[in-house]
Amino acid sequence: MIYVDNAATTRLSEPVLQAMMPYLTECYGNPSSLHSMGQTAAMALVRARETIAEILNCSPKEIYFTSGGSEADNQAIISAAKYGESKGKKHIISTAFEHHAVLHTLEKLEKEGFEVELLSVKDGANITAKQVENAIREDTCLVTTMFANNEIGSILPIGEIGGICREKGVIFHTDAVQAAGHINIDVQSQNIDMLSLSAHKFHGPKGIGVLYAKKGIPLTTVISGGAQERGKRAGTENIPAIVGMAKALEIANASIEENTEKVTKLRDRLISGLSGIEKSILNGDPVNRLPSNVNFCFEGIEGESLLLLLDQKGICASSGSACTSGSLDPSHVLLAIGRPHEVAHGSLRLSLSEENTDQEIDYILNEVPKVVEYLRNMSPVWKDIVSGKKKSVL
Ligand SMILES: Cc1ncc(COP(=O)(O)O)c(C=O)c1O
């Protein structure tokens, strides 16, 4: 199988598995236990926290382990909102192409009386720092924008947005789930107050993530119980996963330049090859783009059928976010960048990793055009477009 769905999740790497193994087998103590096995686990927890803090350039005390990106997003946003509310500020700025972990949390807050402003990306494939600056008001308590988009790969101007928020005294959170381990992150120089990341997007285990929260930002407890994570996130720490995440981030971070160079070449071959398909369009920022992301819409076909046929050819791809597949609604991200409904339905996301090869790209470039043609030959919409009965929207 050719796996090009790395934005959905990645393969657990061998060194990461090896780092986790002792904590899954002989050293299974609870880090809150006072005996030596518990204390060995506690030491591993300290080391993992230090490793991650060093990579993000923050203090270990600013790192909180969560069950993944979704939980970190929820806790960050709820915390900043509640803090804002305590100061009489209830305006939140975000973007229309955030992950649902952010959008659905914001919807809940709206029901509680917060005013949420989603910046539109319709006039392009990305948002600008200027848009954020213009939207900030006296009563803005939070700006939350993703670091890089999971569907279309656009990389946002995070440093600039952070700078503006810092200047205006507004808390800035970024969902860096697609960026961590792939793009350099430095919470100090990028003026990031809160950040979410998730291990399974950089060859770490699933079900573990990090919330970075700058000292001084009071966290609201989302999961109550024991005193773990300095009382801010209850539950026995998942030591094997935490150790694996630190190892995975260490490896990924050390190879960012090398991987970027390799993966960008593969990506650009795919983009230039697939652009040759008639009535196709690249989604997302063509320049400020994740090295791993290729996302196209093909007019006149259904993305789901395309995926099933590609799967039969041994290609694991996606039509967009894994979290929304299974629903018949077109991607909110593609609608947010102005793709019409009928075009948004025909999307294909190929998300690469450094494990992909040139031979795999050759194969994909050979198969995708054939499958698109096959589906168009069966598509009444495409027939109408070809005969001129229906106007093409691309
Ligand atoms: C941008 C973004 N945010 C949040 C998440 C959720 O992360 P997790 O699966 O760790 O809950 C994802 C996962 O796809 C994502 O891509």
Short account of what is shown:
The protein has 394 residues and is an alpha/beta fold.
SS field, number of helical segments: 13
Number of strands: 12
Give the helix proportion (percent range).
40-55%
The CATH topology of the largest domain corresponds to Aspartate Aminotransferase, domain 2
What overall form do the CA principal axes indicate?
Answer: globular
Low-confidence stretches: none
CATH class of the largest domain: Alpha Beta
Evaluate the radius of gyration: 22 Å
End-to-end Cα distance, whole Å, is 32 Å
What's the pLDDT, averaged over the residues?
Answer: 96
Number of domains: 2
Q: In this structure, how is the largest beta sheet organized? A: 7 strands, mixed
Task: Return the structural class.
Answer: alpha/beta
Q: What's the CATH H-level superfamily name of the largest domain? A: Type I PLP-dependent aspartate aminotransferase-like (Major domain)
H and E order: EHHEHEHEHEHEEEHHEEHEHHEHH
In CATH terms, what is the architecture of the largest domain?
3-Layer(aba) Sandwich
Strand content: 5-15%
Task: Give the spatial strand order of the biggest sheet.
Answer: 2-8-7-6-5-3-4
